[in-house]
Amino acid sequence: MLVLGDSISAEYGLARGQGWVQLLSQKLHEGSSKVEVVNASISGETTAGGRSRLPALLKAHAPAYVVIELGGNDALRGLPLSSTQDNLIAMVDAAQAARAQVLLLGIQVPPNYGAKYSSEFAQVFAQVGKDKTVAVVPFILEAISDPADLDKYFQSDRIHPNAQAQPLIVQTVWPAVQALLKQE
Q: CATH no. for residue 43?
């Protein structure tokens, strides 16, 4: 399983091994799964960066599963939604061409971007999932998204989840990962 993500998956601000990707790997092995997890996430990564790196990663690792957790940095940089969508589609196409099952992990933007932009941004993930027939977790941070959770589950920047939040992220992603593994 190849995880291609940004800082949320790259353990930004956390001690190595505390992030949700590592916790997911441990959970898979506890369940006697033989699936090895490769975390190819980079803090600050955009969908364009992921798109450019994915072919080499597919060649190097030949994963049966690809989890894409990208898009948040596109929004933070104000990149056009159409380019985010095109990049996600290209990554799904590349992974499927390499015979990998794909899971898309969506992100949502803070409300200060405006209701219209926030809604359209969230729709990008849903539309790609529908058009490409891939599973989508609409919001990877759903379990920690309540405004009251900011101090409890986020680092001081209020963007990056802290160590306490990581098991909750795994709980959010786990049902989709289980379904993905059953497709094999």
A: 3.40.50.1110
Closest CA to 141 of 151, 153, 124: 153
The residue from 9, 25, 41, 160 that is catalytic is: 160
What pLDDT, in 10s, does the model give residues 130-153?
A: 999 999 999 999 999 988 888 999
Say if 172 falls within a structural domain: no
Residue 60 lies in a domain: yes
Please report, as a single letter, which amino acid is at residue 47: T
Q: Report d(CA 84, CA 106) in Å as an integer.
A: 12
Whether 74 is catalytic = no
- The yes-or-no answer on residue 146 being catalytic is no
Q: Residue 32 is part of which domain span?
A: 2-165
Q: Is 29 a catalytic residue?
A: no
Which residue among 6, 7, 9, 74 is the active-site one?
Answer: 7
Residue 184's pLDDT band, with cuts at 50, 70 and 90, is low
